Amino acid sequence: MGPEKLKEIINKIIKDVDVVVGYKEGFDKLHATPCFITKPEQTDRIILNALCAQNLANYLLSLKSRKIAMVVKGCDSRTIVQYMQEGLINREKVVVIGVPCTGVVSVKRVLSNVNSQPILDVKFSGDEIAVITTAGEQKFSIRDVAPDKCRTCLYPTPVVYDYLIGEAIQSDKAHEGVYKDVEELAAISLEERKVYWEKEFDRCIRCYACRNACPMCVCQDSCIAESREPHWISQKSNLTEKFMFHMIHTLHLAGRCVECGECERVCPMGIPVNILKKKINRDMRELFNYEPGVKPDEKPPMFTFSIEEEKIEEHKL
Ligand code: SF4
Ligand code: SF4
Ligand code: SF4
């Protein structure tokens, strides 16, 4: 990933859009942060490297009255397709600047490797990242500090784009790899699985970062986690309420989770919340041969209805 070609494209299209959404350096060299460009002289702020991990497509709904250009990686682009399938955006108002991607860096993994020392500088060389802290320099292969999703990435090249920064990359991964963690959990007994999730959800502080970062949690101010009419869950911090929140979150994403991994990236407690959504995605694939956010002309299964679903036995009772 390199910023020069990106800057060239932004300078070319900026007069035709209201805002370009990309990345700039964050509060230190290890953190990239979203960046909103409205004037050509702001283009120099743009960065494009393996620290650009956020799924910027999350901004499309709040900016949907504007004409937007947006930088998207392969995984992020599935959000755009899912929004198109659900009729949530007007594709003609979005200029997609696609970035073929070989993987991003998990800041949490890097920080854990450098014992959370203050970051002085970060440098890239080929497939390596060098992190300079007050304790010295440490080098990592980007692959070793990537989030899990990059290790099983099926769509390194965006599935929709208007411009592409570089050559398209084909994935050599199989779908089975994406669901390995789901399979592992499915292989243990129901009782063991209950214990597993109790232990995980017990740590949940109900900060709702996973929900807020999720591009497919589109109810926003009407989320039933806060609604008092109807009053589905209370604000009590007990396991029952935490379970209820996560079950609601999971079921509202049935056949809609684009597997961008933002929920896990932002969780301050390191809870693997995406496994639940992937479990439903795997079921959706088996039942409806459907994968969220991949083909713009497809209709998500939850947006259709048949009395007799071909692969659902209950309807034959
Ligand atoms: S999942 Fe794929 S497209 Fe997304 S950041 Fe990782 S390698 Fe890049
Ligand atoms: S549930 Fe997680 S992985 Fe799925 S779309 Fe939301 S943030 Fe992305
Ligand atoms: S981000 Fe983590 S701690 Fe916060 S509500 Fe979600 S699962 Fe719980």
Can you describe this structure?
- The chain has 317 residues and is α/β, with parallel strands linked by helices.
- It contains 11 helices and 9 strands.
- It has helices at 3-13, 74-85, 107-113, 148-151, 175-178, 180-186, 190-202, 209-213, 239-252, 262-266, 274-288; strands at 19-25, 32-37, 46-47, 68-73, 94-99, 119-125, 128-133, 136-141, 163-164.
- Strands 1, 2, 3, 4, 5 and 9 form a 6-stranded mixed β-sheet that branches. It has a 3-stranded antiparallel β-sheet with strand order 6-7-8, with no helix packed on it.
- Strand 1 and strand 2 form a beta hairpin.
- The model has no long low-confidence stretch (mean pLDDT 93).
- One iron/sulfur cluster (SF4) binds at residues 73-75, 101, 103-104, 149-150, 153, 156.
List keywords for this structure.
alpha/beta, binds iron/sulfur cluster, 31% helix, 15% strand, 317 residues, globular
